[in-house]
Amino acid sequence: MKRYQVPCIAFINKLDRMNADPNRVLSQMRAKLSHNAAFLQIPIGLEANMKGVIDVIHRRALYFEGDFGQNVREDDVPTDMVSEMEDRRQELIECVANKDDQIGDLFLQEVQPSIEQLKAAIRRTTLNRTFVPVLVGTALKNKGVQTLLDSVLEYLPNPSEVNNFAFDEDDIRLQMSPDRNSSEPFVALAFKLEAGRFGQLTYMRAYQGQFQKGNYLYNTRTGKRVRISRLVQMHADKMEDVSEVAAGDICAFFGIDCASGDTFVSQPKLRLSMESMHIPEPVISLSFKPAKKTDLDNFSKGINRFTREDPTFTVHFDDESKETIVSGMGELHLEVYAQRMKNEYNCDVISGKPKVAFRETLVAPVEFDYLHKKQSGGAGQYGRVSGIIEPLPSDSNTKLEFVDETVGTNVPKHFVPSIEKGFRGCAERGILMGQKVTGIEIRLQDGQHHMVDSSDYAFQLAAEGALKQALRDASMVILEPIMNVEVTAPGEFQGAVMASVNKRHGVIDGTDGSEGYVNIYCEVPLNDMFGYASELRSLTQGKGEYTMEFSRYQSCRPEVQEDLTLAYQEEQGQTQVKSSKRSR
């Protein structure tokens, strides 16, 4: 939400579950997420006694009746909850008054705002991202879902209130027009792919203009033209055929060959690309292969479809091991795709041992000056590059930046892209354990060319040789992914769980607990997290669970680096262990 500046409302779900505690969730939103949040609703009962919600703005009780909670009945607030409702209403007004001048003036004058004034202020502060309204309910029984949808309409922005941008071929940022007419060319983004009974179903969000079925669209990434013969809008699992869509609509097309994130336009000369989402780097890899050779076609179809659907799921073929390597955001992520391959393509998959996506980087700057010169009859190869490679700050240690600082004609400018290509290609395999080299800035400062023998290929080879030479002379470290881990377990097992985290070289950031359970927040290297689920279950008699998400890359411990380096050298069949410089 912060990255894309998206206004939001919160919905505390599953209040019919055991140990449901919305007050604890609200306090965590304030303490851990730094949200200025307050209840718009409070539940009438919890766990099995969850009957409905109280609307603190209108001072009314809402009960959701029927088999699926489809009938909403208004009633008076239960007498034993009137005091709590008034306290929560006053708390809501105070939170809004802290961020809204109009309500703030009324609050200082000790004047109670009207319902209309309060709702208008909630909308203003929500759009400014200074306040988060909190609603409650249980989605499984449709209790609170209707009021949640009403709140989306009342407090969140409609498409005409949001500024959306696209980039042209020159990377110039252009604002999209929210007008729902054909005054501007049609622009849409494919954000989700789904395999249905009629073929691939592509979900699109229209950002500009108007489009009618039967017309043509152009994929700006591939340049392909496609005719849209059927246009539908989705309502859960039901389709509704429509004849046209306009800016702000979400629709779906059939029969389009594209990938998630592709931009479509109505005019072929309009080379636009919508702003892309942040795609995190994969942190774990597995080898995938079909159990039967006869399933190879289905395996290829499944892999091709999954990579188009999910940009965080990547695939490459390892030439050395002759294996298909899939990478994703965790063990569970890849296990889901292995199961989908079996269920959707009838192809059992054999997966190899998980491999963590380590990275290699520099500790200190290193200079390079490399000459590639080869003569074998006829036109030769000649290219010389020189400059310096510097480490980037720790918050940029997954990036590789290239800067051209050359002046004059020693390195003609049309050779610079080939030099950059050579550096980036060589950085795919480091010298410590064959992992990608990141967190460096390569500054090309000078070089030399030959009028006849210099070529793009020669300068590309010169860049590759320069990086290999520089890395051999440099102080290198291995970076490993660090995960944010939250462990939930009964309080009686807190000591054993914390000991298990420490054994896996985790750093405990904090703990909290309620009603007999404790939450432990920690940071643990991903390489040490394999097999933790079974260990946690055995420690807590099956009552413990944990969640894990990627945090950052950081340097691994010296003994881990030594073990990883030796294992890589043995795998490569290197009989002599080369000593490498390490940071001290």
Describe the structure.
- The protein has 584 residues and is of the alpha+beta class.
- The strands form eight sheets. It has an eight-stranded antiparallel β-sheet, with no helix packed on it. Strands 21, 22, 23, 24 and 25 form a five-stranded antiparallel β-sheet that branches.
- Helix 2 packs across helix 3 (101-108), helix 6 (296-309) crosses helix 7 and helix 8 crosses helix 9.
- The two termini are 39 Å apart.
- Residues 575-584 have low confidence and may be disordered.
Keywords:
584 residues; alpha+beta; 12 helices; 33% strand; disordered C terminus
Topology:
Layout: E1 10-12, H1 22-32, E2 37-39, E3 41-44, E4 52-55, E5 60-65, E6 71-75, H2 82-97, H3 101-108, H4 115-127, E7 132-136, H5 145-155, E8 165-167, E9 173-175, E10 187-196, E11 199-208, E12 210-212, E13 216-219, E14 225-227, E15 231-235, E16 238-241, E17 244-246, E18 250-254, E19 263-265, E20 273-274, E21 284-290, H6 296-309, E22 314-318, E23 323-328, H7 331-345, E24 349-351, E25 355-356, E26 359-362, E27 366-374, E28 381-391, E29 400-404, H8 416-426, E30 440-448, H9 456-473, E31 476-490, H10 494-503, E32 507-514, E33 517-525, H11 532-539, E34 545-555, H12 558-571
Parallel strand pairs: 1-7, 2-7, 29-30
Antiparallel strand pairs: 3-4, 4-5, 5-6, 8-9, 8-20, 10-11, 10-19, 11-18, 12-17, 13-14, 13-19, 15-16, 15-18, 21-23, 21-24, 21-25, 22-23, 26-31, 27-28, 28-30, 31-33, 31-34, 32-33
